[in-house]
Amino acid sequence: MKKTPLEDWIVNRTRISPGNQTELAAYQFKKILETMDYVKKNSAFYKKHLDLIGENTISSLDDFKKIPFTYPEDIEKSPYSFLCVPQQKVDRIVTLNTSGTNGEKKRLFFTDKDLLLTVDFFNYGMRSLTDSTDRVLVLLPGNTYGSIGDLLKKALTLSGVSSTVYGLLSNLDEVEKIIDERDINCIVGVPIQVLYFSRLKSDVFKRKIKKLLLSTDYVPEAMINELNRNFNCPVFTHYGMTEMGYGGGVECEALNGYHLREADLYVEIINPYSGAPVENGEVGEVVFTTLTREAMPLIRYRTGDIAAFSDKPCPCGTFLRTLKRVEGRLENRVEISRGAFLELKTLDEIILQFEEIIDYQAVLKDSNTLELEIALYDESSYPAVRRQISTTIQETFPFSLNVKVNKNQEKKPNQLVNSMLKRKISDMRKERRNE
Question: How does residue 99 score in pLDDT terms, banded at 50, 70 and 90?
Fold first, then answer.
């Protein structure tokens, strides 16, 4: 097993001694102080947000962990107040839809320097699974400058790896033709779309695909296990979000969690309720600080993602920290009654184990009614699948649920229609309260 290529990249970028975690922490602390100084001078939001944080207030990483968080809602309310460069220096603006009730949209800004740093990370991160003998198909948006597919193609080119950027999966036959004609052996794509493709075009997977990288959303273990089992195909996962500059961390050959982009990010895990740091191995919310961003640095940004740092060294032998696979999002952990939760990750493990299903949507109508809409490629299996799903869900959760399973007539995954939207439990109770 080879060591993660990110180790040498981080050592070279940070100029620390190989294997020295203490020096890496010192580098990150130095960059944090530089970033705080930069945003206090250039960002209207942080001038106010960090107004009471004096030059001598932060003398260690422990001190830093006491300063205020930045929330997604802060960006939604006033995205331009985060901008640290003149607008003419901005080379890409990404607008993300949000769950806000006032129609706010989250806008994120990047300079060319910011985008090139992401290309640099992708270049070395992709070396965890590819080399010059591979041919990669990218099923992610890539038509515009600075999009994730565009950056990934540039990174693969630097490594001498052949790649084709198709965009989000829309036409199965067309994608199959590309795989055959270009002898593709590796796919990078959205988890539920790749699963959909593998279930409807299993023959091309068996003939051609030798490795996968799943990105942009939480990856259920049931999905990974199925792809391993049916196609003997190693499944690498990538963790990132647009706010991070797309890239956050990627798995090595150990497939044991992500090694992080630690030259550009400082990552923490906190208790999502108290905000206090948690111990390694303890699950909490991912929080990050950018260390090298030019247009829009973020300080202690709360992601809403659920994960934990591993308390054991990675089998690949790196000294870098390992972030265990993300387990989903806090917003997809819906409280049914005090201390009792309905979680998307549990629904995923139950529902996606049925290979007849190509996607589903979950709507919580009230505290006792869960309505599921499932898309099947074999509709004759619907009666049996419906019974098994209802029974398993009712047996799994420690509270009573009236489960209604309906058939989606479109026979297409929701994400084929709704692009890069993340899957979620729609909580109608919350929507009614907001009316």
Answer: low
Of the candidates 361, 411, 422, which has an alpha carbon nearest to the alpha carbon of residue 382? 411
Nearest to 226 by CA among 250, 251, 192, 259: 192
Taking a C-beta distance cutoff of 8 angstroms, is the pair 136, 161 a contact? yes
- Strands (DSSP E) contained in 111-231 are 135-139, 162-165, 186-189, 211-214
pTM over 0.90: yes
Asked if residue 298 belongs to a domain, the reply is yes
Q: Which residue in 169, 226, 179 sits closest to 204, CA to CA?
A: 179
> How do strand 265-270 and strand 92-97 relate by DSSP bridges?
unpaired
Contact 28/64 with Cβ under 8 angstroms? no
Q: Residues 73, 100: contact at Cβ < 8 Å?
A: yes
Question: In whole angstroms, what is the distance from residue 110 CA to residue 295 CA?
Answer: 5
Q: What is the DSSP letter of 292?
A: S
What are phi and psi for residue 119, nearest 5 degrees? -55, -40
CB 129 within 8 A of CB 257: no
> Do the Cβ atoms of 302 and 287 come closer than 8 Å?
yes
| In a shared domain, residues 315 and 354 | no
Instruction: Dig out the tokens for 240 from the structure.
Output: 């990132």
| pLDDT score, position 100 | 45
CA distance 342 to 353: 18
Cα(203)–Cα(196) distance, rounded to whole angstroms?
Answer: 13
* Whether residues 319 and 335 fall in one domain: no
Give me the number of domains the chain comprises.
Answer: 3
Burial class, 391, CB count within 10 angstroms (exposed 0-12 / middle 13-18 / buried 19+): exposed
Q: Tokens at residue 71, please?
A: 């929330």
CA–CA dist 303, 117 (Å, integer):
21
Q: Are residues 304 and 344 in the same domain?
A: no
Query: Which residues span the domain enclosing 54?
Result: 5-114+257-323
pLDDT in tens, 2-17: 999 999 999 999 999 9
Strand ranges inside 243-332, DSSP E: 249-251, 258-260, 265-270, 284-290, 301-307, 322-323
pLDDT per residue as tens digits for the range 308-340: 999 999 999 999 999 999 998 998 888 888 888
Would you give the distance in Å from CA 266 to the centre of its chain? 16
Domain assignment of residue 119, yes or no? no
Q: Which residue has the tokens 């920290």?
A: 321
The CATH number given to whatever domain includes residue 203 is 3.40.50.980
The CATH number of whichever domain residue 61 belongs to comes to 3.40.50.12780
Say if residue 12 is in the same domain as residue 78.
Answer: yes
pLDDT of residue 212: 98
Looking at residue 309, the DSSP 8-state letter turns out to be B
